[in-house]
Amino acid sequence: MHVAPIFGRALRRSPWVFHVGTSGCNNCDIEIADCLSPRFDVERFGVRLVGSPRHADVMLISGPVSMACRRPLQETWLEMPRPRAALLVGVCACSMGAYRDAYSVAGPADRVIREVDPEARFLYVPGCPPKPETIIAGLVKLLEEI
User: Fold this and answer.
1) If pLDDT is split at 50, 70 and 90, which confidence band does 12 have?
2) CA–CA separation, 97 vs 51, rounded Å?
3) For 55-72, what is each residue's pLDDT tens digit?
4) Is residue 43 a part of any domain in this protein?
């Protein structure tokens, strides 16, 4: 029996997620934490929050990328094994929202990550903050694409 198809099927069914808060107001972080609670139970889809990017399949990013977080975010992205994808949660992560003209913001997360990985894959979950149901729907859609 060939082992590679088993790993591919396991990746689709049980992705591990690493959460990165790059700055902002942290409302999205509260909603992400709510997704992990027993009420919404994102683990029923096989999604598991991990503490190291080296174990993650998906990076969950919230907030606009500040100048101080730019380089650490890029280094964290490169530590993730391939295939990798990112779920951008909230208007600030997607398009910088209210922080658009701020002097201390490097840009939206997709633009910052594409500087080091032009082939990176992203899924956007807009909202201020998005509801847990929307975040879970985004995760499920991202799983289908991986």
Assistant:
1) low
2) 28
3) 988 999 998 898 999 999
4) yes
The pLDDT of residue 7 is above 80: no
Number of domains in the chain: 1
Domain ranges, residue 105: 13-145
CA distance 79 to 59: 11
Residue 116 lies in a domain: yes
At 18, list the tokens.
């690493």
Instruction: Characterize 18-45 residue by residue with b for buried, 16 or more Cβ atoms within 10 angstroms of its Cβ, and e for exposed.
Output: bbbbbbbbebbbebbebbbeeebebeee
Residue 117 included in any domain: yes
Look up the pTM and report it: 0.83
d(CA 106, CA 48): 29
What percent of the chain is helix, strand and coil (3-state, nearest 5)? 45, 20, 35
pLDDT in tens, 18-48: 999 887 788 888 888 888 888 888 888 788 8
Cross-strand bridge partners of residue 16: 48
Which CATH number fits the domain that encloses residue 38?
3.40.50.12280
